[in-house]
Amino acid sequence: TRVAILISGRGSNMVSLIEAARAPDFPAEIVLVLSNRPEAAGLARAAEAGIATQAIDHRAYPDRDSFDAALDAELRAAKVDLVCLAGFMRIFTPGFVEGWAGRMINIHPSLLPLFKGTQTHARALEAGVRLHGCTVHYVVPELDAGPIVAQAAVPVRAGDDPDSLADRVIVQEHRLYPAALALVAGGKVRLEGDRVVFDADAA
Ligand code: GRF
To answer: Where does the Formyl transferase N-terminal domain start and stop, copy by copy (predicted)?
Structure first.
């Protein structure tokens, strides 16, 4: 399975995927890291790891349709089978998402369906939840709403601020995302319509 990782920033989840995919028995190969921000720190980290990188600056495109078309063309040129979003901060057009239906996953820093969107750690503290975490889900046109592949929970501790909570969650993100990618790329999990179907040994 040929995988592209889409990033916009530091790329710590990207690094965890690249490292996991180095294992000989990992069912996916990271063939491309693509960023909508040329200055994203993660691009340099990917290049250091010997992965092909590319920047497609969204500011060079007049609208979402033309940016998404350029992105789609690059992914297809690289013969990508599966797309992993890892801190990719652009909203896609429905047409782009439909073209990758069942073949695009995202990691989100909350226990979905709670706290879609940004500022998830501050909002979790504001809401007073005692458990927080992260979710890997299939991407659908509605933001952070797709069928769930895997989740990990962390406790909220007295005295947490958004940064301390984020630090606890990201540790789990780095564990969860490679595990979820292995399930999807290994065919243990798949999307059928709007439901996720798990193999007996993956559930
Ligand atoms: C992660 O918390 C991810 O879940 C969220 O943005 C952050 C990206 O961090 N969507 P990184 O770029 O992977 O370090």
So the answer is: 2-181
C-alpha span between 166 and 109 (Å, rounded): 8
Instruction: Please give the model's pTM, rounded to 2 decimal places.
Output: 0.97
ipTM score here? 0.97
Our answer to whether residue 58 is catalytic in this structure is: no
Asked if residue 173 has its Cβ within 6 Å of ligand 1, the reply is yes
In the set 58, 108, 132, 174, the catalytic residue is 108
Kindly report the CA angle at 166 between 55 and 88, in degrees rounded to 5?
20
Q: How far is the CA of 13 from the centre of ligand 1 (A)?
A: 6
Each residue's pLDDT tens digit in the chain (203 positions)? 999 999 999 999 999 999 999 999 999 999 999 999 999 999 999 999 999 999 999 999 999 999 999 999 999 999 999 999 999 999 999 999 999 999 999 999 999 999 999 999 999 999 999 999 999 999 999 999 999 999 999 999 999 999 999 999 999 999 999 999 999 999 999 999 989 999 987 76
